[in-house]
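subagent[fold] <- orchestrator: predict structure for attached chain, return C-alpha coordinates only, no commentary.
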Amino acid sequence: MTKYLIALGVLIVAVVAYFIFAPATTPPSSESEPVTVAPSVPEPVPAAEAVDDDTRLEQIAADTRENLPSALTDTLTWTDALFLPRMRIMEYSYVSADTDAEPSADNLRNMIATRAETICLDGRDMFEMGTTLRNNFETSNGDLIDRVYLLPEDCLRFY
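subagent[fold] -> orchestrator:
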Protein backbone atom coordinates (compact mmCIF):
# COMPACT_ATOMS: atom_id res chain seq x y z
CA MET A 1 0.00 0.00 0.00
CA THR A 2 2.87 2.34 0.64
CA LYS A 3 4.06 2.01 -2.92
CA TYR A 4 0.60 3.11 -4.13
CA LEU A 5 0.75 6.20 -1.95
CA ILE A 6 4.24 7.04 -3.22
CA ALA A 7 3.09 6.58 -6.83
CA LEU A 8 0.04 8.78 -6.20
CA GLY A 9 2.26 11.46 -4.60
CA VAL A 10 4.65 11.40 -7.57
CA LEU A 11 1.71 11.74 -9.93
CA ILE A 12 0.33 14.72 -8.02
CA VAL A 13 3.76 16.39 -7.94
CA ALA A 14 4.12 15.85 -11.71
CA VAL A 15 0.71 17.38 -12.45
CA VAL A 16 1.37 20.39 -10.21
CA ALA A 17 4.84 20.87 -11.75
CA TYR A 18 3.32 20.71 -15.22
CA PHE A 19 0.86 23.51 -14.49
CA ILE A 20 3.51 25.64 -12.80
CA PHE A 21 6.23 25.31 -15.42
CA ALA A 22 4.18 24.91 -18.64
CA PRO A 23 3.92 28.08 -20.77
CA ALA A 24 0.59 29.81 -20.88
CA THR A 25 -1.34 28.96 -24.01
CA THR A 26 -4.10 31.51 -23.67
CA PRO A 27 -4.66 33.55 -26.83
CA PRO A 28 -4.02 37.27 -26.55
CA SER A 29 -7.12 39.30 -25.85
CA SER A 30 -8.50 41.59 -28.50
CA GLU A 31 -7.80 44.59 -26.27
CA SER A 32 -4.07 43.93 -26.22
CA GLU A 33 -1.70 46.00 -28.30
CA PRO A 34 -1.35 44.93 -31.92
CA VAL A 35 1.60 42.75 -32.61
CA THR A 36 4.11 44.31 -34.97
CA VAL A 37 5.98 42.05 -37.30
CA ALA A 38 9.46 43.00 -38.37
CA PRO A 39 9.68 43.56 -42.12
CA SER A 40 11.09 40.59 -43.90
CA VAL A 41 14.47 40.91 -45.48
CA PRO A 42 14.25 40.33 -49.23
CA GLU A 43 16.03 37.20 -50.31
CA PRO A 44 18.99 37.69 -52.61
CA VAL A 45 18.30 37.04 -56.28
CA PRO A 46 19.96 33.81 -57.38
CA ALA A 47 22.80 34.07 -59.83
CA ALA A 48 20.98 31.79 -62.25
CA GLU A 49 19.18 34.57 -64.15
CA ALA A 50 20.77 33.42 -67.41
CA VAL A 51 19.15 30.04 -66.92
CA ASP A 52 15.77 31.75 -66.44
CA ASP A 53 16.34 33.80 -69.60
CA ASP A 54 17.26 30.63 -71.48
CA THR A 55 14.10 28.98 -70.23
CA ARG A 56 12.03 31.95 -71.40
CA LEU A 57 13.71 31.89 -74.80
CA GLU A 58 13.16 28.14 -75.09
CA GLN A 59 9.49 28.80 -74.37
CA ILE A 60 9.37 31.53 -77.04
CA ALA A 61 10.84 29.08 -79.56
CA ALA A 62 8.38 26.37 -78.54
CA ASP A 63 5.41 28.75 -78.79
CA THR A 64 6.62 29.98 -82.17
CA ARG A 65 7.06 26.42 -83.41
CA GLU A 66 3.49 25.59 -82.42
CA ASN A 67 2.10 28.63 -84.24
CA LEU A 68 4.12 28.55 -87.44
CA PRO A 69 2.20 29.88 -90.43
CA SER A 70 2.09 27.48 -93.31
CA ALA A 71 3.17 30.04 -95.90
CA LEU A 72 4.42 33.61 -95.61
CA THR A 73 4.39 34.31 -99.33
CA ASP A 74 3.73 32.27 -102.42
CA THR A 75 7.38 31.13 -102.45
CA LEU A 76 8.38 31.26 -98.77
CA THR A 77 7.35 28.92 -95.94
CA TRP A 78 8.39 29.26 -92.30
CA THR A 79 9.35 25.76 -91.20
CA ASP A 80 11.06 25.86 -87.79
CA ALA A 81 12.01 27.89 -84.72
CA LEU A 82 14.85 26.86 -82.44
CA PHE A 83 16.80 28.44 -79.58
CA LEU A 84 20.53 27.70 -79.35
CA PRO A 85 21.42 28.61 -75.73
CA ARG A 86 25.20 28.44 -75.92
CA MET A 87 25.35 30.91 -78.78
CA ARG A 88 22.33 32.96 -77.61
CA ILE A 89 20.78 32.59 -81.06
CA MET A 90 17.11 32.27 -81.91
CA GLU A 91 17.03 30.52 -85.25
CA TYR A 92 14.13 30.65 -87.69
CA SER A 93 14.20 28.46 -90.78
CA TYR A 94 12.41 29.21 -94.02
CA VAL A 95 12.08 27.13 -97.17
CA SER A 96 11.84 28.77 -100.56
CA ALA A 97 9.99 27.17 -103.44
CA ASP A 98 11.95 29.23 -106.01
CA THR A 99 14.16 27.18 -108.24
CA ASP A 100 16.71 29.97 -108.76
CA ALA A 101 18.64 30.35 -105.49
CA GLU A 102 20.43 33.69 -106.02
CA PRO A 103 17.40 35.92 -106.77
CA SER A 104 15.55 34.10 -104.03
CA ALA A 105 18.32 34.93 -101.55
CA ASP A 106 18.17 38.60 -102.57
CA ASN A 107 14.41 38.67 -102.07
CA LEU A 108 14.75 37.08 -98.67
CA ARG A 109 17.45 39.52 -97.54
CA ASN A 110 15.28 42.43 -98.71
CA MET A 111 12.30 41.03 -96.81
CA ILE A 112 14.32 40.97 -93.57
CA ALA A 113 15.70 44.45 -94.21
CA THR A 114 12.28 45.98 -94.90
CA ARG A 115 10.63 44.22 -91.95
CA ALA A 116 13.50 44.84 -89.51
CA GLU A 117 11.59 47.41 -87.46
CA THR A 118 8.56 45.14 -87.08
CA ILE A 119 10.74 42.14 -86.23
CA CYS A 120 12.72 44.14 -83.65
CA LEU A 121 9.61 45.54 -81.98
CA ASP A 122 7.84 42.16 -81.94
CA GLY A 123 10.89 40.44 -80.47
CA ARG A 124 12.01 43.22 -78.15
CA ASP A 125 12.11 40.98 -75.06
CA MET A 126 14.28 38.51 -76.92
CA PHE A 127 16.68 41.15 -78.23
CA GLU A 128 16.93 42.88 -74.83
CA MET A 129 18.23 39.57 -73.42
CA GLY A 130 21.13 39.77 -75.89
CA THR A 131 19.78 37.17 -78.28
CA THR A 132 20.62 37.26 -81.97
CA LEU A 133 18.02 36.31 -84.56
CA ARG A 134 19.34 34.04 -87.30
CA ASN A 135 17.19 33.46 -90.36
CA ASN A 136 18.09 30.41 -92.44
CA PHE A 137 16.79 30.27 -95.99
CA GLU A 138 16.85 26.89 -97.68
CA THR A 139 15.75 25.34 -100.93
CA SER A 140 13.11 22.64 -100.93
CA ASN A 141 16.01 20.15 -101.25
CA GLY A 142 17.40 21.31 -97.89
CA ASP A 143 20.34 23.27 -99.37
CA LEU A 144 21.18 26.48 -97.50
CA ILE A 145 20.60 29.51 -99.74
CA ASP A 146 21.51 32.25 -97.30
CA ARG A 147 21.67 33.10 -93.63
CA VAL A 148 20.70 36.57 -92.38
CA TYR A 149 21.41 37.79 -88.85
CA LEU A 150 19.57 40.47 -86.93
CA LEU A 151 21.67 41.52 -83.92
CA PRO A 152 20.41 43.14 -80.73
CA GLU A 153 22.51 46.20 -81.63
CA ASP A 154 20.65 46.48 -84.95
CA CYS A 155 17.36 46.80 -83.09
CA LEU A 156 18.44 49.55 -80.67
CA ARG A 157 17.56 52.28 -83.16
CA PHE A 158 13.90 51.19 -83.15
CA TYR A 159 13.36 51.44 -79.38
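orchestrator: received. Logging for downstream: The CA atoms of residues 78 and 131 lie 20 Å apart. Strands lie at 76-84, 89-96, 132-139, 144-150.
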